[in-house]
Structures are given as structure tokens and as C-alpha cells.
Amino acid sequence: MSVDMNSQASDSNEDDFGVNSEGEEDEDDGGDEEDQGDIASYYEGVASDVEQQGADSFDPEEYLFTCLTYKESQRVLMEEVNTVAAALKVSGSSVIAKLILVHFQWQVSQILDRYVLPLSCICLFCFIAAVKSFTSHPPQSLQCGVCLQVVRRDALLALPCQHSFCKACWEQHCTVLVKDGMGVGISCMAQDCSLQMPEDFVLPLLPGEELKDKYRRYLFRDYVETHFQLQLCPGADCPIVIKVQEPRARRVQCSRCSEVFCFKCRQMYHAPTDCATIRKWLTKCADDSETANYISAHTKDCPKCNICIEKNGGCNHMVNFCWMCLGDWKTHGSEYYECSRYKENPDIVNQSQQAQAREALKKYLFYFERWENHNKSLQLEAQTYQRIQEKIQERVMNNLGTWIDWQYLHNAAKLLAKCRYTLQYTYPYAYYMESGPRKKLFEYQQAQLEAEIENLSWKVERADSYERGDLENQMHIAEQRRRTLLKDFHDT
């Protein structure tokens, strides 16, 4: 599984940002086909179906968010800029207000609380040039501090920090930084001077409208990325901005490109693992990929007859043994799914460094194998989901009921993928979790969830052999286990 760890800035034209809300609805109405196996679809229409079966209506993943177009997000930003600018009560303060808002992550209440200080003190605290006239103080020398050329007095420009440079050097400085993707962070050229340059100082120095348009887009990007309630959609060339009331590591989905991601870190959604932990885990997996290659094979030897076996479904329940640990399935029991818990050596601290290194690798491989196995199970169950879709379509075409009559099969497959996706991300969480009572509780709930998911997977793959009530009851139990685990441990 590859995950882009870096935010990408779009260079699309500004017109691309002007997404029409009605146009979005028209696009959505254009087709009813779903991308089979797409994780984004796992969360749609499943929760209400399970709740009708009597499950707890509280969903720990419930999170209110709004998808804004470029123009709508511009209005949100400008309303806050005007609020702060009005409080500052100085001429041309909207430009300064933007930089102050960036420094405080657009938390207007914090800025208004600090307004008891003079504007100059606030600007000094934020390293912002607070004076609109940038040549009001005559330079002490007519020599440019960069190219060392002696120029006319009117050819020198200086910020309030009084570091004077010729206009040509200022232009070169701003041009290079904007071409490199810089927006808000352009500061004075003087060494060790952190005074930031407002946009009305930078814009006249940029040659050509194309570069000025780029600078405006980079400014918008920086304004959104520093806003504690806003996030740019990470979808390719997508202009949508997600707005929330309380920034948390929760699942959000773009209304335009259907990208699903974590609001806090903009990476793949990863509950119950927190953002910092999943970043460490993915980095570790990338670094140790060659070490772990051998366990990524699709085959294992049967523990009884040694015949090579390939798993072609998502369920880990083979006929009489467990795919993960190769142990007798009957010994797993219904209360504790032992093969999901790593049994650490309590005496490892007293052994040699080589033994400790081997134990550390063994532990990592234990969790990585289960992480990778559930990822592969998701892919295989996506094929099961597609087969169910085809089977339902065939039955409807043969007048063996309506789509509504067979909807429960469709929802069962989606819920299975939803639960397994959560289960996959419990393994990075468990790997980095410190030993103790809380970890034991987590492992117990993880084991309960894993057992019920395997029961659900077994029944979904053999749906024709089970009554509708039996399958729906298993859906209810699996979703209850998932919600219980998230409620207790997804608190970031």
C-alpha cells in the first residue's frame, strides 16, 4: 500500500477553482455505477441499515463537515480578514490582517484577545511589516545590500526593518521564491531578518500576470493550510476545501472527486491509529519493505498435509485452520482470538543485543503480516462485493425479487469491508502501544472484532447458505464490535 506523505500544490488555472455547486450535483446524477471495491463507498448507506437491526445509534466516526468551492472558501477567509482588519482600525490593514491571521492559524478570538496591545506590538510579535509605505524611511546608504551597486535613491526599496536593496534585487528575490511555490513565507532578503513581506509589496515586483496569478494561488493555498478549520482536498487538481467546526483526526470525503482522507493529516483515513503513529508505521514499512518481502507471498503450507495453499477469499477461516497463525480453528474459541495478540518475551531485556534485535524484528513482522493480510483481504472481498452485485442484478432480471429485497447482501459486503478496514489499522496502533492494562483491553476488543469479522466474511462469501436474519444479526454484532473499539480508543 503506497501513501503520499507530501501535500501537493496545484498549478491549475484560477478558473478551475470556481466550481459550481449545481454542477457538482449534475455530475453526481450522471451515473449510478459504483467503483467496485472503492473504500469510499463502504460508509454509504451501511450505518442506517445496521441501526435498523437494533445497533447502538452512536457512531464514534460521526463528523460534521462542509465542502466549499473556491469562491465559497474565499468568502469565509475574507469575512475573518474583515473582522480582524476592522479591529485593527488602520489604513490598508486587510493585508496585515491576513498575515496576523496566518500566524495565529486564523483563530480570530485569540487575535482579538491580544488587541489590547498596540498594532505595532502585534506585528512585531508576528514578524510582520506593519507600515504600508515601504520607502518612508530614507536609507543610510545608496548601495544595494545584495548586488553592492550604487543606485539612485528612488531605486532603493526597504521594509520597516530598514534593510535597503535595489528594486531589481527585490524582483529577483520574489520571482525565484514564487516560482519555487512560496506564498506567505516570503521575507526580507537581509541575513537573519524574518520580517515577512505583505502581498501588496510582493505583487508589484512580480513580472507578468501569469506569475502574479501563481502567487495569488499559493497565497490561497497557504491561507487554507494554516486555517485550523479548513483543509484542501488532496485529490488531484481538486479545488474543494473541507470546513469543520472542530479539527480532529476524522474521516471526511470530498463532494467533487470523492477522495476520502483524514481531516487532520490529509492522508488515508486511519482510525483508530493517530496521525503521528500511522506516519511512523508507513515510514517503517517503506524502510523495511525488503525485510518483509518474504511474508508477502500469497501461499502457505497446510499445517496438516504440507500442500501449498493459496487464499482466494478475504476470510482467514480455512476449512480447519487459521490462515494467519496456521493453528487449529477450533482452538481460537469465541472469546479470545489469540493469533491477533503478540506474546512478548518478558526476559528479553536481560538478553544480548542480537537477541533483542531479533525479538524486535519478530514483533514487527508479526504486526506487519496481519496488517498486510487484512489489506489483501480487502482486495479479495472487493471481488466478492462485485460478484454479489452481479448476482443481485441477475436475480432482479429473472424476476426473483426486487433490488430492495436483496439489498441486505449488498450492505453486508460493504459493512464487511468497512469493518476490515478499521481492523487493518488496529495493528499499527497495537504495535506502538505500551504494554499494560489499556493494551490488554485494546487487544481483547481487537480480538472480538477480528473474530466477528471472520464470521461475517465466512457468511458473506457463502450468503446463499444463510438466512437473511442470520446474516443481518452477524452484521449487527460486527458493527457493534467496531464501534465499541473506536469509542474507547479513537480519541485523537
From TrEMBL:
GO molecular function: ubiquitin protein ligase activity; zinc ion binding
Compositional bias per record (Acidic residues), positions renumbered to this chain: 12-37
InterPro entries registered for this protein in UniProt: Ariadne (IPR045840), BRcat_RBR_TRIAD1 (IPR047555), E3_UB_ligase_RBR (IPR031127), IBR_dom (IPR002867), Rcat_RBR_TRIAD1 (IPR047556), TRIAD_supradom (IPR044066), Znf_RING/FYVE/PHD (IPR013083)
Superkingdom as given in the UniProt entry: Eukaryota
Gene assigned in the entry: arih2
RING-type domain sequence ranges: 140-343
Protein name per Swiss-Prot or TrEMBL: RBR-type E3 ubiquitin transferase
EC number, as in UniProt: 2.3.2.31
SUPFAM superfamilies, alphabetized: RING/U-box
Reactions mediated catalytically: [E2 ubiquitin-conjugating enzyme]-S-ubiquitinyl-L-cysteine + [acceptor protein]-L-lysine = [E2 ubiquitin-conjugating enzyme]-L-cysteine + [acceptor protein]-N(6)-ubiquitinyl-L-lysine
Location of the protein in the cell: Nucleus
UniProt record, GO biological process: protein ubiquitination
Protein keywords: Metal-binding, Nucleus, Repeat, Transferase, Ubl conjugation pathway, Zinc, Zinc-finger
Keyword match Metal-binding: yes
